[in-house]
């Protein structure tokens, strides 16, 4: 009965190690996604420390490749030292992922205030006739999120660009996709996106943080199961001197 329990634990442990390799790829993908998306919205959220959870997630993903290799070798060879090392590394990674979750929630809470502070400045520096990085960022966000202005399209009336152009129009990026004849004129508000960009940018950035948080939580749960199975194998092996090694097919440990 005890031998059956150990074998089951080892089987689960080997399977979990394979999952770790898949998890490593997913975590690296999530981290890279955060970096790429942040690059699109960096003008609206200037706190670079927001990328710390993404950096940690990528580092954890790279480490999981190594953990999976150590875990498989230690489980197949039933190395007590290897399994102990495996458990310790998993514990360190688990604590790291808990830190990522905490940081994710901290920075998620800061998003709204940070965007509110930055977006005002970005819109004031918009220059549609000679686009700079900030102008391209605004046009990109308005097209991608289907929004116009900070709270609505009327916010453009308070910008220097609007006052200088004196044509009573907003950027073409405010035009709805279906409005093929739209020229940005405020005389045709039905052709413009009605929703402001601030709320949508905040929502988008918070969604990005939630991707990091859920990824860290999911794989932290898998790592807990991995630690549990490794501990079961270690404890049973230390209590049973007649424990058979899989690699030798019956030699005493």
From TrEMBL:
**Topological category with respect to the lipid bilayer:** Multi-pass membrane protein
Q: Which InterPro entries match?
A: Tetraspanin/Peripherin (IPR018499), Tetraspanin_animals (IPR000301), Tetraspanin_CS (IPR018503), Tetraspanin_EC2_sf (IPR008952)
GO CC annotations, alphabetized: plasma membrane
Residue ranges annotated as coiled coil are: none
Q: Which UniProt keywords apply?
A: Glycoprotein, Membrane, Transmembrane, Transmembrane helix
**Which subcellular locations apply to this protein?**
Membrane
Q: Where are the transmembrane segments?
A: 12-36, 48-71, 83-107, 212-235
Q: Which Gene3D superfamilies match?
A: Tetraspanin (1.10.1450.10)
What the entry lists under Pfam families is as follows: Tetraspanin (PF00335)
Q: How does it assemble?
A: Interacts with claudin-11/CLDN11 and integrins.
PANTHER family for the chain = TETRASPANIN (PTHR19282), TETRASPANIN-3 (PTHR19282:SF48)
Primary role: Regulates the proliferation and migration of oligodendrocytes, a process essential for normal myelination and repair.
Similarity remark: Belongs to the tetraspanin (TM4SF) family.
Q: State what protein this is by name.
A: Tetraspanin
* Originating organism: Ovis aries (Sheep)
